[in-house]
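Researcher: Next entry in the queue.
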Amino acid sequence: MDSSNATKPIIAKIRLYRSRAELCRRKAAENEQLAVENEKIATSWEAVLSQIQSLQRQEQPAGVGSDLSLEELKAEPVIEAANRFDLARELVIRHREDGILPVDIRRLANARGFPSLSNYPYKTLKDLIKQGKARRDHQTGRYFPVAKEEKKGK
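Model: Structure for this entry, 154 residues:
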């Protein structure tokens, strides 16, 4: 038997195992890239959440505070609301003359026993605006109900 014929199967096996090793190295590099991408996504997500919180703080103009005290809010007639969203809708309607700030809605919801997150009034008010039931005065940051005449005018 010729020595070259004897080494051919061995060389073929070496090539096969080299190609498998190269494939494994590529997969390991891809996994490392995926780990790096996942870390970037997590960091980006934290940045997005930070921006959302910043925008929520900007929602109420600086220096504009609520002139309603918690005692005044509690002194209002009791609102029969099934949940905190109904409470927010009712408060916007009740304060149609002066408008209401999201911070007042959140304070009153907490005082009435509806646990509420910091973004709760903003989400509810944004939904009311989308439904055409409320509008926001951008100068004061107060929300007002939309009159039926305003709806028809649009």
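Model: Strands lie at 134-136, 143-145.
Researcher: Noted, moving on.
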